[in-house]
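Kindly inspect the following:
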Amino acid sequence: MAQTILVVDDSASLRQVVAMALQGAGYEVLQACDGQDALRYLDGRKINMVVCDVNMPKMNGIEFVRAAKALPNYKFLPILMLTTESQEAKKEEGKAAGAKAWMVKPFSPASLLNAVSKLCLP
């Protein structure tokens, strides 16, 4: 069975680019438009990893990471922040919330797949 990755970004075109790269590498992809939308997927189903933006309406990426990590089933879920934010303070905030890795946009699909292959839970 393919590993499932949840892609959370308020940009539909970016979600599509990430989803195409991941699906091309054999991953199953779920998509959400913000942190609040993403939480509906954390309903007990098996998710191997999350790729999440930081700046989004309703619930931003860091708030989402905190909310996801508070759920017992998703406490150890690896979350990769994929964002335009590159300030150290933001990265530290993400890390403190529980994000495993940080990748700055624009990104290459190859570098994304490389990071995903290292972080994705079996």
